[in-house]
Fold these 3 entries.
Entry 1:
Amino acid sequence: MDKGESLYQPLPGSTSVKLGPKAVKDFVNEFIRPTSDVSKVMDQMRPVYVDRSNTFIKEEDKKEIKKKIKNKKDGKLTAREKRRLKLYDIPKDAHQYRLFEPLAELWQGYMDKLLLQGTANFEQKLIKADFHGARFTVIQSTNPSYVGSSGIVVQETLSVFKIITRDNKLKRKNLNEYH
């Protein structure tokens, strides 16, 4: 390449001046075999859209991408993303009973308020109550190794309680194994 030669070359034909479907048809006509029909080629072409990151997207994928963008706009993570980011895991350095004692005191106040509301329908209130911070002792279980273990509930899900014991051990108790 000579020093005076331009690095940028114009597109073949004078398509930069033309606009509209006829210009596209003329442009395509310059690149296909002379034996091919331009109208057939144009009919077989699919529209392509450009998303925000300037990558090419086929028309079929447009709906899926709109859905993903909408979810990202909400700022909400899916359950799978939360597990992958380990948001539900309690770090090892936080496996200390003393760190959760204030939570247990707060839970005691929460239960006192529930009792002050009256004992009518208390069983229903207890079933729906939040148990984070509750002091638990397992008195009956299908797994005999669970019986007698006690501690503060640090995490509660539909089927699992995670309990921190006085000796700073995090134990996972499956609710399906209790009577």
Entry 2:
Amino acid sequence: MKFSAIKATLVLFLGGVLVAALAPPALAHDSLKSSSPARNAVVSTLDRIELEFSAHVTFPVVILHDAAGHRFESGTPRADGPKVVQGVAGPLPSGNYVVAWRVVSSDGHPVEGEIPFTVKAASDAAAAGTPSTPAPLSATAPSTSVADDKGSNNPLLLWGGLALLVVAGAAALFGRRKKPEHEADTA
């Protein structure tokens, strides 16, 4: 079977379109779906940080710090499938805070991010460090949601598209090199 230059170009183009269409979902890392506290939320108290990802994550690192760099996390973060929970040390004084997180996604690559939020203590007693009655976390810090990851993490699609490109390229290369034998004899 002979491949003309037009057919070979068409096959290469269609193979490239296939790889381009399937590669973004296939190469997507897990992402943060929701968090408590939410990004840019204003809370009155916080006793734990909850992060939910689009798939199972491992080796979580969660750091809670204020603008001066003082850290407020308590214990080690716990990962349970797609959820990570980190305790908070004591009542937080009023101010701006950042949750910095890093996990290893289900595809083995590290994913990280930051969630800024603000604490506005219900009274000056909370700012001074004396305990006050904490408000329920769900009432003060609504979770933020990110669109569900609808992509496929199937690398078979990517490798199939790349294999198609290689085969099409080889066919085009070998098809151009072969010359009819009768043209070589008449010259």
Entry 3:
Amino acid sequence: MGEIFRLCTQLSVQELFELQEWIGSELDRRKSEEVERLKAEVELRLKQLNLSLGDVFPDMRQAVRSADTSKPARADLEAPEKGATYRNPEKPQDVWTAGVKKGRAPVWVDRLREKGELHRHKVGYQG
């Protein structure tokens, strides 16, 4: 691992951003693979024992119903305008353009979306 960190110190800022985007995409891909693998294992085991998820987790339905709804669902969040550039309010030198590269948006963009404030940080916004 130390060798990887040493190599990263030699990358340009642009290369680090590209690496960050690649890592985000790779993590998403691997997590999806793990979830699918786990689902298959659980389904197989439940079938072998003639059980359902409700048998194993009887309180699951109630837990889902009473889940904290203070955080909006991802689909309800303000969507970034494709091609629009947004500026990080905490670090004005950091900008992100929606839809230009694959991968996850920066954390600060997600936070602004959750607050419903993304549009205010669009470059050229006249509030």
